[in-house]
Amino acid sequence: MFIDFARIRIEAGNGGHGCISFRREKFSPKGGPDGGDGGKGGDIIIIGDENINTLIQFRYNKIYKAKNGESGQGSNKNGAYGDNLYIKLPLGTILYNINNNDKIKLAEVTKDKEEIIIAKGGYGGRGNASFTTSTNQAPRYATDGKPGESFDLEIELKLMADVGLVGFPNVGKSTLLASISGARPKIANYQFTTLEPMLGVVYVDDIRSFVMADIPGLIEGAHNGKGLGIQFLRHIQRTNILLFLIDITSENPYDDYQTLKKELHLYDNKLDQKEHIIAFSKLDLLPEEERENKYSEVKSQFKKENQENFIAISSVTNYNLQNLKEKLFKVINGFIKKY
């Protein structure tokens, strides 16, 4: 199951209390103060993990607590520090503090094994031995440990991929991803077969590769939540480039393309400006004698409106798939150099 949103409660550990104690031994019945300091409470630390791509771990467990620091003891024994609590999250996760109904961005997880302290444990209190001075050699007070940070944490996952695969339902996105990568998405001849984003590693050759994300199909009105749109549109924001997949057998492929761009723009006005390639899918469904004419007709319509980078493919027969991978890698490489 793919889950890309969660809200949990996190509580860092409290600091241990300082100790009030005086040394009492056989030959020193009125020894000086020897109360130790309390230990620091445990932090809550986020770790980026490239092997995780869902927030399903937060479906049932909603409260995460780090250990408290131990209180100080006599004989100048300081309390032990509380153990830190480590939470692994997928790359592309954004964290928000939502205390008092305010939503404040805290951090973004972008690197594997990256560690981010999201909530700090409280400092331990001071024992009476630490308050000894030349004028106060027998202090009878200590301080309590400080509370650790605690708040409600909102977790939002935006998948990170080089290429985001965008298109209407049932245009062949899952079939394409399965054909050019090791991913095995569900494939069927009906709308909304894909109910969750899928990632696949695409190998251009033995050395070159990139990651492609299959985003569930968009429909007109997706930016307002129609269909499955709004809950998946955010994943497109984190991709470097886009691959628009347009059904060449559609009544008006150019209108389909414009609708997709419009939905991206209405959700985020920078999305439709991303580097992209247009691939015309399902070429195999056309009679062989009609393919060239149909492709020329569609290509001329796109060229008439604006200059685009496009290619005709068939995921079923593997027609032009290697050329598509080469094109995508070239555009990705140009994007990386630019930024």
Low-confidence stretches: 185-195, 221-229
Average pLDDT: 84
- Evaluate the radius of gyration: 29 Å
Q: Judging by the overall fold, what is the CATH architecture of the largest domain? A: 3-Layer(aba) Sandwich
CATH superfamily membership of the largest domain, which one? Answer: P-loop containing nucleotide triphosphate hydrolases
Number of helices: 5
- Strand fraction: 15-25%
Write the layout of secondary structure elements.
Layout lengths: L4 E7 L32 E6 L13 E3 L19 E6 L2 E5 L6 E6 L5 E5 L30 E8 L5 E4 L6 H8 L17 E6 L5 E6 L15 H7 L4 E7 L5 H15 L8 E6 L6 H18 L4 E3 L8 H18 L1
Parallel strand pairs: 1-3, 2-4, 9-11, 9-12, 12-13, 13-14
Antiparallel strand pairs: 1-8, 2-7, 5-6, 5-8, 10-11
In brief, what are we looking at here?
By secondary structure, the chain is an alpha/beta fold. The chain has helices spanning about 175-180, 230-235, 255-265, 290-305, 320-339; strands at about 5-10, 45-50, 65, 85-90, 95, 105-110, 115-120, 150-155, 165, 200-205, 210-215, 240-245, 275-280, 310.
Describe this protein's structure.
The chain has about 350 residues and is α/β, with parallel strands linked by helices. It has two domains: about 5-155, Spo0b-associated Gtp-binding Protein, Chain: A (Distorted Sandwich), CATH 2.70.210; about 165-339, 3-Layer(aba) Sandwich (Rossmann fold). Helices cover about 20% and strands about 25% of the residues. The protein contains five helices and 14 strands. The strands form three sheets. The protein has a six-stranded mixed beta sheet, sandwiched between helices. It is rod-shaped. The chain starts with a strand and ends with a helix. Mean pLDDT is about 85; it is low at about 185-195 and about 220-230.
